[in-house]
Design brief:
Shape: flat
Strand content: under 5%
Distance between the termini: 25 Å
Radius of gyration: 16 Å
Number of strands: 0
Length: 62
């Protein structure tokens, strides 16, 4: 997950509604992660994430 639901910033929504939206989004993300692990997929290590971040920054600095 690389973003959050933008409707949480809608002034029509209360703070409580925004938190509900975020908690639901994160619950779904964790459920997806759990199912992926059950299927045998492994999460990226911290080192892998740092390498990806470094590579991304190198590509976008141009």
């Amino acid at each position: 997950m690389t973003s959050e639901a933008t409707n949480i910033y809608d002034p029509k929504n209360s703070l409580l509604a925004a938190y509900r939206i975020l908690f639901r989004q994160w619950r779904l993300a964790f459920e997806i992660g759990a199912r992926n692990r059950e299927r045998g997929l492994r999460p990226a290590s911290v080192g892998e994430l740092l390498r990806l971040l470094r590579d991304f920054r190198r590509q976008t600095d141009r």
